[in-house]
Structure formats: structure tokens, C-alpha cells
């Protein structure tokens, strides 16, 4: 069946054949004329877990230490519930109208445009892509910290603790950037499913090792450290306590941030059953798994270190024996972040390339695909614009990371900046518009109260993280400081 004239968008009222396949679809093409989607519950879960259990898990022991045994786990649970609930609302917006036959929205911005109009779509796009850009910076910093931890660990053991082993993070950021330049040439989001599965496995590996070392340290000392209210006044000043508590909210928000790529993940899922049903199940599984890991890592890290809980859990064990185990955990973090960087950046890459192709449709530089034969594989389609622009993007994120390598503060700012608008506000507003929920009704009021409460949390988290960056910048020298 020839599909060259297939419609690009599904019509609002689709007719199904006896096999349950929409008319206009075929074995090779979906109902919108695009190649058949192959994503499943498991691949969607892998994408989500890769996006969620990222470097954010490493700062949770520190965040729990700022909040204490009562507020720490409570805030973690609260964020997990809000993330799951708003993700379900957002997954309902993948199709406009009917959840089975409605017109597809391929990106988060498409969904906002369909439900809220063009003006809000532009605001959403600006926030979303700035956040993705920031995540790329945060992941570059986190990967370099783990690579440095491996180098310092081996240096200490070779010198029998006589060498201070001061190391610059710059070469490791450059190394990570080179890897990302190569991987960023993978053309489309749906072609990196294998990278997501590898990254998800790695995230479980290092989270489990961090958890295990926390349990071992608690068993060794024979007591749970920490207090009900968190880090005590005296260890820090009262002002620092407030700012750090706010920053902890941003760190936890960052640890749960994946809504910005939810629609893009949903667009890889095959149907039937409807993409919404599959995504809802994948979201539930992923949030339960990640929350369990977060609770364990955050709480056991706090129990092990108390007020001295480190900003990065795995670097806080120092050169704890067996040091090779920490090396494995840090290597797993690097491998995971290599994949997670791509999961987050592919939607940004696709947006810029689509915009460029529409703006300059006659440009050979932008549109021409050069087929490069690869023995034993399909030919690789090289696009010069993709090669140049993605390489420049990775170089810019790497240079900014080298200028401002403050892991906890950057993570807090990213979490605060993206959490309310992308995880809460837009999903809530789109859901209200799609379901035509009457203004001032009980349901409308509950959704608005949720949105307003999350806005206050985001503002507090942003204030705390910015204060942290200002303090760090007072003592930091760009390109020169070693650790």
C-alpha cells in the first residue's frame, strides 16, 4: 500500500477496520502517515526511569539533611505524588479530543498550542528548552565529578594517602563533551531506546551501590544519625539553614523532573491500546520505582552522614574500602549521564532542526541528507546542519559547565525553574481546557490550589539556590579551581 499521500495529522473522527487499526494506517505507517511507532510499556518506562533517576538522586541525602527526618521523607513523597498526578493529566493531552482517535500532539509545545493557544505555547517553549539546556549543563558537571572521583580514588591508593591529588574538572568535562558530540548525531528520539535501557540499568547500579554503602556505614557505626528537624543551627547559621532548606526543595524537584519530555516519550508508543493507557501505567511504575530508590538513598545517606551529608552521595564516602566498588558506581553514573543527556537533548535538537527546515526549505545545507554506507548496517544519513549545530550546542554546554561547576546549586536552580511551569501549571491548565472544567467549581479550585502551592515552593527553591551560587562564586576562580 503506497502511503506517500497519507495525511500528516489524524482527523478528529477516525474510522477503524475489523482489526482495530484506524483506516489510513497500515502495517508500516501509523494513522498520521508517519512510520509505525514501536514503543511499549517497557521502553516508555525505561525512558522515564532514565530521565528521572539521574544525577538528582545523588543530592537527596544532602536535601534530606537540610529538612530532617520528618520533612525530608514527607517532601519526597509529596513531590512523587504531584509528579505522578500531573503526569497523568499531561498524558491525557497527547491527543486533542478523543484519547484514541484525536489529533496527535508530537511535542509538549504542540500540546500547549492545541489546548491553550499560541501565546502560551511560546512561553512554554522558552521555559522548556532553557530547562533542557540547563539539564545538559547539570549532567556535564555531574559526570565530571564522578570521573574525578574515580581518578582521585586511584591516586590516593597509589600514593597511600600521601598525595593530596588535586584535580581540575575541565579535562573530564571536555571528555564528556566529546562523547556527547558523537552520540548527538543519532538523528531521532525513537532511535535511542537502547541507550535509555543501558542508562536505566546503570542508574539502578549506582543507586543500589550508594544505598548499600549507606547501610554498611550505618551498620558500622551502629546508629542512625540525623535529627527530626535537619541540620542544626550552629553547624550552619540561621540564615544558611533557611536558604539551604529552600535549596533542598529545588534539588528534590529536579530529581523528579521529566514532564518536559513526557509527550515526546509518549509519541514513541505504539497503539492499540491507546498511548494514554500505556503511558499512565509506565508513569505509575516509574514513579513508584524511583520514589522507593529516592527514599532509600536519601534516608540511608542521611542516616550514614547526619549533618555532614555530602552534596554528592557517592563522593561523600571518601575513599571507603572497597574503593573499587565506588569506582564502579561512579563509572555507572557517567554511563547513565551519557544516555540521559541524549534523552533530554533530543527534543531540543528536533525542535531547532524542524524550525530551520521550515524557515529555509530550499537550503541544501539544512535539508540535504548524505548517505554514508556502514558495512553490516543501514546507511547513515549525514545532515551537515545537524552535525554543525549539535556540535556547537554540546561545546557551549561544556564551556558553561567549566565556568560554573556547582553541582548542588545548579541542580536546585534547574529544579526550581522547571518544576512549577512545566510539571504543574501547563498540565493543569491544559487538562482544565480539554475537559472544560467550569471555573470556580470544586475540581477547578482544587487544581488551582495545587498549582499555587507548587508556585510558592518553586519561588522558595529558586531563592535558596541562587543564594548558594552567589556564595560559591565568591571563592571560585573560573577554569583554575581544582578539587
Automatic annotation (TrEMBL):
The keyword rRNA-binding does not apply. InterPro entries: AA_transpt_TM. Residues 37-470 form the Amino acid transporter transmembrane domain. Keywords: Amino-acid transport, Membrane, Transmembrane, Transmembrane helix, Transport. It is found in: Membrane. The chain crosses the membrane at residues 41-63, 69-94, 129-150, 192-216, 282-303, 323-344, 387-407, 413-432, 444-471. It comes from the Eukaryota. This is Amino acid transporter transmembrane domain-containing protein. It comes from Vitis vinifera.
Amino acid at each position: 500500500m503506497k502511503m506517500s499521500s497519507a495525511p500528516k495529522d489524524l482527523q478528529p473522527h477516525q474510522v477503524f477496520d475489523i482489526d482495530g487499526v484506524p483506516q489510513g494506517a497500515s502495517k508500516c505507517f501509523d494513522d498520521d502517515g508517519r512510520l509505525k511507532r514501536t514503543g511499549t510499556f517497557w521502553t516508555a518506562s525505561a525512558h522515564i526511569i532514565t530521565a528521572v533517576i539521574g544525577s538528582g538522586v545523588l543530592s537527596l541525602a544532602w536535601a534530606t539533611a537540610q529538612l530532617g527526618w520528618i520533612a525530608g521523607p514527607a517532601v519526597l513523597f509529596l513531590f512523587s505524588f504531584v509528579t505522578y498526578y500531573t503526569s497523568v493529566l499531561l498524558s491525557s493531552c497527547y491527543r486533542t479530543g478523543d484519547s484514541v482517535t484525536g489529533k496527535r500532539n508530537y511535542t509538549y509545545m504542540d500540546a500547549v498550542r492545541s489546548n491553550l493557544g499560541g501565546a502560551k505555547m511560546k512561553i512554554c517553549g522558552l521555559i522548556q528548552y532553557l530547562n533542557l539546556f540547563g539539564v545538559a549543563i547539570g549532567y556535564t558537571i555531574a559526570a565530571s565529578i564522578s570521573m574525578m572521583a574515580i581518578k582521585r580514588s586511584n591516586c590516593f591508593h597509589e600514593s597511600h594517602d600521601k598525595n593530596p591529588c588535586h584535580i581540575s574538572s575541565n579535562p573530564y568535562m571536555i571528555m564528556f563533551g566529546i562523547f556527547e558530540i558523537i552520540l548527538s548525531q543519532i538523528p531521532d528520539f525513537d532511535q535511542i531506546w537502547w541507550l535509555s535501557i543501558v542508562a536505566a540499568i546503570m542508574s539502578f547500579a549506582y543507586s543500589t551501590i550508594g544505598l548499600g554503602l549507606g547501610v554498611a556505614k550505618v551498620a558500622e557505626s551502629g546508629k542512625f544519625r540525623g535529627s527530626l528537624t535537619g541540620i542544626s543551627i550552629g553547624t550552619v547559621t540561621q540564615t544558611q539553614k533557611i536558604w539551604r532548606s529552600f535549596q533542598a526543595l529545588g534539588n528534590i524537584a529536579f530529581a523528579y523532573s521529566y514532564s518536559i519530555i513526557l509527550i515526546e516519550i509518549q509519541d514513541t508508543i505504539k497503539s492499540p491500546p491507546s498511548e494514554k493507557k500505556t503511558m499512565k501505567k509506565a508513569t505509575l511504575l516509574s514513579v513508584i520505582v524511583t520514589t522507593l530508590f529516592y527514599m532509600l538513598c536519601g534516608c540511608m545517606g542521611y542516616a550514614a552522614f547526619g549533618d555532614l551529608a555530602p552534596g554528592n552521595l557517592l563522593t561523600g564516602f571518601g575513599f571507603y574500602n572497597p574503593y573499587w566498588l565506588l569506582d564502579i558506581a561512579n563509572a555507572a553514573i557517567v554511563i547513565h549521564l551519557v544516555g540521559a543527556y541524549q534523552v533530554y537533548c533530543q527534543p531540543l535538537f528536533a525542535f531547532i532542526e524542524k524550525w530551520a527546515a521550515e524557515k529555509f526549505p530550499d537550503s541544501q545545507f539544512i535539508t540535504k541528507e548524505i548517505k554514508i554506507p556502514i558495512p553490516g548496517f543501514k546507511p547513515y544519513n549525514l545532515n551537515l546542519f545537524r552535525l554543525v549545530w549539535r556540535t556547537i550546542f554540546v561545546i557551549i554546554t561544556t564551556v558553561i559547565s567549566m565556568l560554573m561547576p556547582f553541582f548542588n546549586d545548579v541542580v536546585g536552580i534547574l529544579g526550581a525553574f522547571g518544576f512549577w511551569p512545566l510539571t504543574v501549571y501547563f498540565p493543569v491548565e491544559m487538562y482544565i481546557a480539554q475537559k472544560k472544567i467550569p471555573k470556580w467549581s470544586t475540581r477547578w479550585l482544587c487544581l488551582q490550589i495545587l498549582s499555587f502551592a507548587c508556585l510558592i515552593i518553586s519561588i522558595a527553591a529558586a531563592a535558596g539556590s541562587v543564594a548558594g551560587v552567589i556564595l560559591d562564586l565568591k571563592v571560585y576562580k573560573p577554569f583554575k579551581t581544582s578539587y
